[in-house]
Amino acid sequence: MTKADDYIILPTLKLFKIAVKLDTGGKNSKKEIVKKRAFKAIELNNLHKKVIKYAQEDLPITSEPFADMIKKIRVDYETFFATLDELKESGVMRRFATILNHRKAGFSANAMVVWDIDDDIAEEMGKNMSTFSAVSHCYLRPKFPNWPYNIFSMIHGKSREETERTIKEIEKETRYNKNKYLYSSKEFKKVRVKYFNDDILDWEKNRS
Question: By the 8 A CB rule, do 13 and 119 touch?
């Protein structure tokens, strides 16, 4: 459909960071401690799936924003929030939070910076890069003959100059500058993945 000549598959081999914290006031520290959380194992049951199905939707701005979903799931408030806590403690749900549109907040110069890092120190470098507050996402991915970049770091800034200052600071600290800046030129789609609903069934039905 895209008429692409070639493609590569880039699975995440190691996740170093995924946390968007925009410095809207210009007062945040340039570095932060990235804590590795321990999760407990759970087996998803029907209640978990129902809570996920409804809790992933946008909340209405009312005095009781959870009332409608609790009615649909047919549980009480205590059970609903206990289930949310269990999903968070297990890592199934990373967070339950308000989402800020970073472009509308002024962060329009957002670059995916890809780095060609030696494999034997790639994990160390990824952990180091993830401590920069302007880095929201940082992953280790495989290299290919036509794509030698294995560390992917998403860096946010209000201008290209601000974003590239952060990149230069990372280069200075890691002593690596074999990279490419991939700025977004057009956004085709940006939606959260939805789980345990009928969207995929409707999509497949409409394509047939």
Answer: no
Among candidates 171, 161, 172, 102, which has minimal Cα distance to 137? 102
d(CA 21, CA 108): 15
CA distance 135 to 133: 5
The CA-based angle 6-10-99, given to 5 degrees, is 120
SS3 category, 88: helix
Give the integer Cα–Cα distance in Å for 128 and 174: 8
- Contact 49/196 with Cβ under 8 angstroms? yes
Query: 70 by DSSP, 3-state: which?
Result: helix
pLDDT tens-digit map of 136-161 = 899 999 999 999 999 999 988 888 89
Task: List, in order, residues 6 or more apart from 66 with CB less than 8 Å away.
Answer: 59, 77, 80
**What is the tens place of the pLDDT at every residue in 9-59?**
999 999 998 876 666 556 666 777 777 777 888 999 999 999 999 998 888
Fill in the DSSP letter of residue 131: T
pTM of the model: 0.75
